[in-house]
Amino acid sequence: MHLHPLTLAFRDDQKDLENTFLEHYFTQSLFTYRLIAVLGLALYSVFGILDACLVPEFKKIFWFIRYLIFCPVSIAILLFSFTSYFKKFAQLTLVLYEIVAGSGIIAMIVIAPPPVSFSYYAGLILILMLAYMFKIRFIWATFGGWLLVLLYGIAAVLLNTPVAIIINNNFFFISANVIGMFAGYSMEHYARRDFYLAYLLTKEKEKVRKAKEKIEEKVLERTMELQQANDQLHQEIINRFHAEEERNRLANELLQARKMEAIGTMAAGIAHDFNNILSAITGYTDLALHFAPKDKELLQYLEGIKKGAYRARDLVAQIMTFSRHHKTPKYPLDIISIIKEVIKMLQATIPAEIIIKQNFPRRSAKIMADP
Length: 371
Hints:
Blueprint: H1 17-46, H2 48-54, H3 59-80, H4 86-111, H5 121-133, H6 138-158, H7 163-250, H8 256-291, H9 296-322, E1 331-334, H10 335-349, E2 366-369
Antiparallel strand pairs: 1-2
Helix pairs in contact: 1-3, 1-4, 3-4, 4-5, 4-6, 5-7, 6-7, 7-8, 8-9
């Protein structure tokens, strides 16, 4: 997060986030801004009772400050917050509100004789603290706070306030302002951090959504291509199968050997074409496995398709071997175990009333052959 160390504004490559943050910050703080106006109006009005008790001889002046200057300003700001212009001038308006409130308290401190004036110091300190804590931006609240400290110093000097009192009061005012600065700086910094983290989270979600859409598009595209290729191959197989049927019809008069050769030729052609289909299936399955999202169930289905395709490819290899169009290496094997497997398969296909009897030697019979 790249922030200006003084103003806390986003900078460098994150400069474009500043306007978005300010809009977000204003939306989140609008209720607080209105609450400031209401609380300021209430507190300033209620403490008019303190004026009548402590300084009855100056109460008219103090009430003039409270009820004819500050209270109308509070009401005007509250009403202004419901207009569309408040969003643009919110920070400036709130700082001016802080200055008006603080200037009124400073006037009371200067006018009231000691020790009565000491009772009004807390009011100025409260204004300084609230300005930082009620979501006025740090840079604006700092400007308003130090301006109030400066105004008090000027007013105190012009009215010949003892130096000891000026130093004592400024110590408390400056301390309150510095503490408020730390609080305001931390609050705005954390607000910007939360906004930035939410921005990063939204950005990552958008990336995931786009990646998911892209993968879905690719899967759909590959599926359509595979379906189209399968349809074409299926039609080609049908056409070739019809041609083979026609040739078989004409070859019925040939000898049994020629018939077996024709069947072998047909089987080889079908096996070859089917092998092409299986190549397409395995190839597109590999692509799907590569581009598919990491969904365990989906990957399991794709692996099942791939395993079935490889089993079918082995069957095609056997057909090619049977049709004598493909050479395979020979291995030493036990012919008796092979025959037993064939008998099991044959027994399952012939009528139940036919019984196959087996009579094999106890020793194994090794030969060199293709299993």
